[in-house]
Amino acid sequence: MVRSYTVTGGRATPSRTSLDEATLLIADHKMPLTGLNPHAHRVMDLCLPGVLSVAEVGHHLQLPGAVTKVIVSGLVDSGHLVARSPVPAAQQHDMALLERILDALHAL
């Protein structure tokens, strides 16, 4: 068993409070991976092909969300990752507009 503070290098809290499980992570392909600890290196390996959420990264690492956020916030601070809020859910359909479209289609 590896203690959580071992994985985070002794850090107990993330440097960024804006991270949540749905935050999307985008890796910077130009940043060197040398010098990263094994977990941070694994996060970069996971995020380099595309976008992953903090929850997905935590699942792949088999680490609690709080520990994952500490690792991810360090990578965001160093410029290895960009964190973005998820795309908001689509807005509700405008029923009046849909009814006008339906009426126009019936009129054809």
TrEMBL record:
Domain of life: Bacteria
UniProt xrefs under InterPro entries: DUF742
Descriptive protein name: DUF742 domain-containing protein
Organism: Streptomyces xinghaiensis
Organism classification: Bacteria, Bacillati, Actinomycetota, Actinomycetes, Kitasatosporales
